[in-house]
Amino acid sequence: MGHVTADVSLNDRVSCTVLLVKKGGRAEAGDPTRSRLEALTLSLTGLEIEMASNSVLYRCSLISFQYTGAATVIVGRRTVAISGNGFRACTSIRLSRNCCSCSYPNPNDTAFVVADDEKYGNKQIISLTPRLYDYILSNVREPEILRQLREETASMRGSQMQVSPDQAQLLAMLVQILGAKRCIELGVYTGYSSLAVALVLPDSACLVACERDAKSLEVAKKYYELAGVSHKVDVKHGMAADVLNSLILNGESCSYDFAFVDAEKRMNQEYFELLLQLVRVDGVIVVDNVLWHGKVADPLINDAKTASIRSFNKNIMEDPRVSISMVCI
Ligand SMILES: C[S@@+](CC[C@H](N)C(=O)[O-])C[C@H]1O[C@@H](n2cnc3c(N)ncnc32)[C@H](O)[C@@H]1O
Q: What pLDDT digit, counting tens, does each position of 208-237 carry?
């Protein structure tokens, strides 16, 4: 039985839009889960649920539903029974049990809940709806060359792995704030995040860009050339841990300002230990995807990757050698 993630909201006419994304990844064309979901018509005690458009379908993975045979769900403040193929429990629904108000004025509007539970300090909790995410993206200054790379990568296998424009902008900004001159990236893929960083580095600076897959690395190298940043990027084709060990053996400990970790998630702890040697005091190490599509917070999900990311997060939380900040981006 496949897992899906979904976001349910009510529009003015009290019909529902269900945004479905396969849990742990995107529901890509041809994906059997997606076909099954697209074929699905749910009835919520008289309310028809319409499937969202494909573009929306790709966007929302914030709120987690679990696929189940049949179930009762609470949408906003309504309790509705789902017959047939149903979905059970999601983050917003769990919150809605504890919240004093839930607002879903329109499927595209910013869905928010106000948690009256004192442990949340009565904060308004905003979930990232398609409309809000569109707004964020419309406020990203994406260089033309990055847009071209993103569009070329879109048709490639694994394109969902690429960091998003807002993430890349944050990485580039961190590098600028730090005044970084020596950077490392683990997991280059076709080069989007590394190019974003290389573009803001001064000419004398250097980014060690490490990737095990030769084919995607070729695309990255093409774009470093096109962007005129090749001289700043030291491409390492190989396994990330091997590359880091060789940098240490080469006497480069404490010489890096910034590192971005976006390779094999189960190796994060090992990468982190090696990077702690390579990155200088007051340097920055960014580790991607520590929320793992929300799975780390779900005690029912215990696959090896999720468990390893959860354990890494716990270790970092308790590690007095570093200051930390978990960012939901
Ligand atoms: C999430 S993608 C990186 C996305 C990239 N940062 C971007 O913005 O496009 C992860 C990449 O890490 C690479 N990778 C996975 N395990 C690796 C390893 N052990 N050593 C080096 N690269 C690895 C994969 O081949 C894949 O291209």
A: 999 999 999 999 999 999 999 999 999 999
* Token pair recorded at residue 328: 């939901």
Beta carbon of 192 within 6 Å of any ligand 1 atom:
yes
Q: Does the ipTM exceed 0.85? A: yes
Q: What is the mean pLDDT of residues 145-170?
A: 97
22: which strand partners?
Answer: 4
The per-residue DSSP string of 32-60 comes to HHHHHHHH---EETTEEEEEPPHHHHHH-
- 162 pocket-lining for ligand 1 (C-beta < 6 Å): yes
Decide whether any atom of ligand 1 lies within 6 Å of the 152 Cβ: no
Atom nearest to 210 CA in ligand 1? 21
Q: What is the mean pLDDT of residues 116-125?
A: 70
* All domains of the chain in start order, with CATH: 4-135 (no CATH), 141-317 (3.40.50.150)
Instruction: For ligand 1, pick from 170, 213, 261, 287 the residue to mutate: most ligand atoms within 8 Å of CB.
Output: 213
Angle at 297 (CA atoms; ends 291, 300), nearest 5 degrees: 125
Reduced 3-state DSSP string for 260-274: EECCCHHHHHHHHHH
What single letter denotes the amino acid at residue 268?
N
- Helix axis angle for 192-200 and 165-178, nearest 10°, is 30
Higher pLDDT, 202 or 42: 202
- The token pair that represents 125 in the structure block: 């909790």
Nearest to 86 by CA among 149, 14, 37: 37
Q: Is 211 in the pocket of ligand 1 (CB under 6 A)?
A: yes
